[in-house]
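Good morning C.,

I know you're traveling, so I'll keep this short. The sequence:
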Amino acid sequence: MNPPDGGVADELPGIGPRLRDLRRNRGLTLEAAAGRAELSPAHLSRLETGRRQPSLPMLLGLARVYGTTVSELLGEAPPERDAIVRGGPLDGAPGGTAAGGWLYRQAGGPGRAMQALRVRVPYGTEGDLVRVHPGEEWLYVLDGRLRVVLGETVHDLDPGDSAHFDSLTPHRIAAPDITGARLLFVHTLLQSPVAELCPGSGIHRL
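The tokens, ready to paste straight into the viewer:
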């Protein structure tokens, strides 16, 4: 239940614009962000305009939705992040994850505006699943052949080919050959839980 509205508090100056900017940078509407944070759109609007101050549970919920930390919501300097991500096999190793028949491994650090993955796409999975959601996607084919359908246009990509598109364009991704394909995948879906980051998970849409 949302707390009742009251007077304007000033204990956390500047947090309203940060909340608004984070929501917009994540490609979320006021209604979508409020729903995920279990707030009403009106209450989230008041937080963003500084007419209300968030409680700690609200800050925790909004940090989860925006893929950040309470410290960053409060404008505190984030801790130094490790810039190096060590590689490893996609299969049979810690850090490798399966979703919807796809195998993927994070290739970038957590908590960033972009997320990078190494992905293996098997033949015959998820090829008919159309996705539409806010954000951008970039992919680069390492080996095999990848079929990317953007709107009504079909593109067959070979190793060395790449695609960069707005995720609001209806899109499908599949491996048309029995050998499958491997690719690098970068996206701006930071608000999604890690299980939703794989483009083959079947949840990769709003």
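Safe travels,
E.
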